[in-house]
Amino acid sequence: MLVVGLAACVDDVPSGARWPETIRPIDGRLPLAYLTNNGEDTVSVVSLADAVEVARVPVGRSPVDPEAPHHLAIDAEAGWVFVGLSNVGLREGGGLHGSHGGGLLPSWVQRLSLIDLRPDEERRVDPDLGDIVLTPDRRWVITTHFALERALQVAMRGDPEQSGWGELNVLDAASMTHRARLAVCAAPHGLAITADGSTALVSCYADDTLAVVDLVAEPPVVRARLPVGPAPGAPAAIRYGPYAVAIAPDGGRAFVSTLEGKSLRVYDVRAAVMDDARALALPGAAFFAAFSPDGSRLWVPTQDRDALVAVDPVGVAIVDRRDFGPECRAPHEVVYVRSLARLALVCEGDRVGSGALLLLSPDRLDVLARVEVGVYPDAVRVVEAP
């Protein structure tokens, strides 16, 4: 009863504290990289052309409670940054995803001004926010909810597995109102949207599946849950651990990064089947990958052996690899910066001190610049000149 009472209190009573007024326009040359710093409730802005952090701005609903901003999406045309406040804090937890997946408090989507990160609007969503993505038409903001602890508890009790599934929330980007909420799978995390905006591909960590969600249906519906490998596990015995998804520029294939499996699993989008014969083993746990604009290369950050791996996505083979030492601990996400023809790689660091953003050459994977940012950065989005 005590736990329920406490949960109700923190769920319903907002903090009365307010951020000090320190907001000012972001002054930096494009392209600009925006990063969420999980460990200190800030967003860093880095001028990539100058390789310098030009702003680090507090985000969240309270200046004293750890809210762990986890991933972000940007609508540069409308001038908005959508930040996911996971509210898992930094309670205990190490490993590849720390305390992520064990949150009890609701998460929030906070909409900020792109030019100064001033809060504009917010909306409460389910606990354990995992990923946040804007659809290509800029109409919907979609979040996943990585309810790993819930899935584990349900499995241990022997309850129906659906009662432990995490959610997918769909918000209207303009009004910040809820369009839909649906249970997807066990601990959904990474999210990718097809170019036509009709389908969401969701990596389901705790039941080793890829969920295929029809976004056109009203309300959206899960059309399929496909095992990402031939011998899928379960929440208590995860075999692959799908964590992130990247769709090729031509839309024909999607590559699923796995943590426990330390591999890429291939989904044939047009045939709507997993292509198990093309799975690719990697040197470490695979995180958020990025394609070259022409689709000829896929770069994958790995942890447990900190590296950036270049993959030929047609032949599904490793063609190059850069191993890291202290310059990049725990690579989390990589993006391709078109205007500079460079890669921008987020390095979590030790989750206590500063993390970093690296700029690398896409052909040789040479480190060209390193910029220190906040504590425990995880995601990056880049705004380039029109």
Structural account:
The longest helix is centred in the N-terminal third of the chain and has 11 residues, at 2-12. The protein is globular. It is built from 2 helices and 30 strands. By secondary structure, it is mainly β. The strands form 7 sheets. Strands 16, 17, 18, 19 and 20 form a 5-stranded antiparallel sheet that branches. Strands 21, 22, 23, 24 and 25 form a 5-stranded antiparallel sheet that branches. It has a 4-stranded antiparallel sheet with strand order 3-2-1-30, with no helix packed on it. 5% of the residues lie in helices and 46% in strands. It has a domain at 60-252: 7 Propeller (Methylamine Dehydrogenase, Chain H). It starts with a helix and ends with a strand. A hairpin with a 6-residue loop joins strand 22 (290-291) and strand 23 (298-303). The protein has helices at 2-12, 148-157; strands at 32-37, 42-47, 52-58, 69-75, 80-85, 107-113, 119-125, 129-134, 140-145, 166-172, 178-185, 188-193, 199-204, 209-214, 221-227, 242-247, 253-258, 263-268, 273-274, 280-281, 285-286, 290-291, 298-303, 307-312, 317-323, 331-337, 342-347, 354-360, 367-375, 377-383.
Q: Give the oligomer, counting copies of the same chain as homo and different chains as hetero.
A: single chain
Q: What is the CATH topology assignment of the domain at 60-252?
A: Methylamine Dehydrogenase, Chain H
Task: Bin the strand percentage.
Answer: over 45%
At the fourth CATH level, what is the homologous superfamily of the domain at 60-252? YVTN repeat-like/Quinoprotein amine dehydrogenase
CA radius of gyration is: 19 Å
CATH arch. level architecture of the domain at 60-252: 7 Propeller
Count every beta strand, where a strand is a DSSP E run of 2 or more residues.
Answer: 30
**Average pLDDT over all residues:** 92
CATH class of the domain at 60-252: Mainly Beta
**Main sheet properties:** 5 strands, antiparallel
What is the molecular shape?
globular
Number of helices: 2
Distance between the termini: 55 Å
Portion of residues in helices?
under 10%
- Poorly predicted sequence stretches spanning 5 or more consecutive residues: 1-12, 90-99
